[in-house]
Design goal:
With 423 residues, the chain is of the alpha/beta class. The chain contains twelve helices and 20 strands. The strands form five sheets. The protein has a ten-stranded mixed beta sheet with strand order 9-7-5-2-10-1-11-15-19-20, with helices on both faces. Strands 14, 16, 17 and 18 form a four-stranded mixed beta sheet that branches. The chain binds guanosine-5'-diphosphate (GDP), 6-O-phosphoryl inosine monophosphate and magnesium ion (MG).
Length: 423
């Protein structure tokens, strides 16, 4: 069986958690392939709102298996909190939550290094989530990391000590004022590792190969968004993993030829949390309304998200890099009542009009060129079928489909599982 992918096409927080939860009924296995607790994936159903960071968003479905893949970085302390939050749901986590032995561990000192690096950068900081993501992937590619499988070895704490000592020296090197009590952090870490060890560690690529052979359906869940990809995002204001389609192959060990549908998910407008260029960012009342109505606060850090018009240039780029086969448009309900909607269809760049993403998209280099469309007034949140959509919403959707050359198959009209309309 093919492996389907679900990826965010913007700067994250597109609504991946909600849609993975909606789609899980069609899949046997949901597998996260990159990122770590920098992610915050929100699900709402039966009046409950739940935020997941590392655990895949299929976890609430009775029959589903949820796999944390080799490409993911795991902070045992945050993972334990996630498990604690799930305790009341009567889920058989020992059976349905599997962890790749090849996933890397975020150590307490990785978090401290993230903070030291950000502090040292001053105004040029990335605006990271301070979860230790960058330093952990640096140790992975530097071939120094500690993996989940190491926890099954007797002398892993020796390896841990050596790495933590090295990290402490590196923190000193930054010469910034970072206060910490490592003994306390380590006590919490080792307790959380003990909890992690109650779950099943597996050779996940082998598990997935077997599953494919046995005709199991698999959905790979992305984190962050394509514009935060380490290679294709707005570097250096990106995360430290490949968030795009190819990341699912390396983050799970599935071959490119086995990829089926690529679901690309985007908001009807754009948001970004943290630093970095954002050509269509708004500082006016339209932006403020998006933030307020859309409740645009980071699910992991609580920081306000920057808001702006839909950027079709960036979206087209993301569709191409990922090979998206179906689109999903989220949060159309937030735009109800806007008199006019703008869509950025090109950039003014070095005196020319271009419709591709250039190397440098800082505000001083690109000026967005907009198409304007009439907005819709109707409240979408109670709608259950596409036939109820106002003409202006259909016009908006059809314009995007024409420009992106990919059908929009799902339109989400609210945060709840049920507020999902298939077209
Ligand atoms: P993710 O990181 O891609 O999973 O997205 P987040 O959970 O960080 O952010 C998406 C936010 O929008 C969450 O608060 C969701 O509950 C909410 N949401 C998702 N879809 C919709 C929608 O169609 N309309 C509205 N109003 N909210 C939505
Ligand atoms: P989900 O999966 C939005 C951003 C951070 C920062 C940059 C680097 O919920 O969509 P990092 O901690 O990864 O080193 O931070 O990336 N960022 C996200 N923004 N949604 C996310 O995840 C993000 N994960 C990281 O704000 O700008
Ligand atoms: Mg999020």
């Amino acid at each position: 069986m093919a492996v389907d992918l679900l990826l965010g096409l913007q700067w994250g927080d597109e609504g991946k958690g909600k849609i993975v939860d909606v789609l899980t009924q069609n899949y046997d296995i949901i597998a996260r392939f990159q990122g770590g607790p920098n992610a915050g994936h929100t699900l709402e159903f039966d009046g409950i709102k739940h935020v997941l960071h590392t655990i895949p968003s299929g976890i609430f479905h009775k029959g589903s298996i949820n796999l944390v893949g080799n490409g993911v970085v795991i902070d045992p302390v945050i993972f334990k909190k996630e498990l604690d939050n799930l305790a009341k749901f009567d889920l058989d986590l020992k059976k349905k939550l599997l962890i790749s032995r090849k996933a890397h561990l975020i150590l307490p000192t990785h978090r401290l290094l993230d903070a030291a690096s950000e502090t040292a950068k001053g105004k040029a900081k990335i605006g990271s989530t301070l979860k230790g993501i960058g330093p952990t992937y640096m140790d992975k590619t530097g071939r120094n990391g500690i993996r989940v499988g190491d926890l099954e070895l007797k002398d892993w704490k020796k390896k841990y000590r050596a790495l933590a000592n090295k990290h402490e020296a590196m923190i000193d090197f930054y010469n910034v004022d970072i206060q910490y009590n490592l003994a306390e952090l380590e006590a919490e870490f080792f307790e959380a590792v003990a909890t992690l060890k109650t779950l099943q560690f597996i050779d996940s690529e082998e598990y997935l190969h077997q599953a494919q052979r046995n005709d199991k359906t698999i959905l790979a869940e992305g984190a962050q968004g394509s514009l935060l990809d380490i290679d294709f995002g707005t570097y250096p204001f990106v995360t430290s993993s490949n968030t795009t389609a190819a990341g699912a192959c390396t983050g799970l060990g599935v071959s490119p030829g086995s990829i089926g549908e690529v679901f690309g998910i985007f908001k009807a407008y754009t948001t970004r949390v943290g630093s970095g260029p954002f050509p269509t960012e708004l500082f006016d009342d339209y932006g403020k309304t998006m933030a307020k109505v859309g409740n645009e606060f980071g699910a992991t850090t609580g920081r306000p998200r920057r808001c702006g018009w839909l950027d079709l240039v960036a979206l087209k780029y993301a569709v191409q890099v990922n090979g998206v086969t179906q689109l999903m448009m989220m949060k159309g309900d937030v735009l109800s009542g806007f008199d006019t909607l703008k869509i950025c269809t090109a950039y003014q760049y070095q005196g020319k009009e271009i419709d591709y993403l250039p190397y440098n998209i800082e505000a001083e280099n690109v000026t967005p060129i907009y198409s304007e469309m009439k907005g819709w007034k109707e409240d979408l949140t109670k709608m259950t079928e596409a036939s109820e959509f106002p003409k202006e919403l259909n016009d908006y959707i059809e314009f995007l489909e024409k420009e992106l050359e990919v059908p929009i198959k799902i339109v989400s009209v609210g945060p709840d599982r049920t507020q999902t309309i298939h077209r």
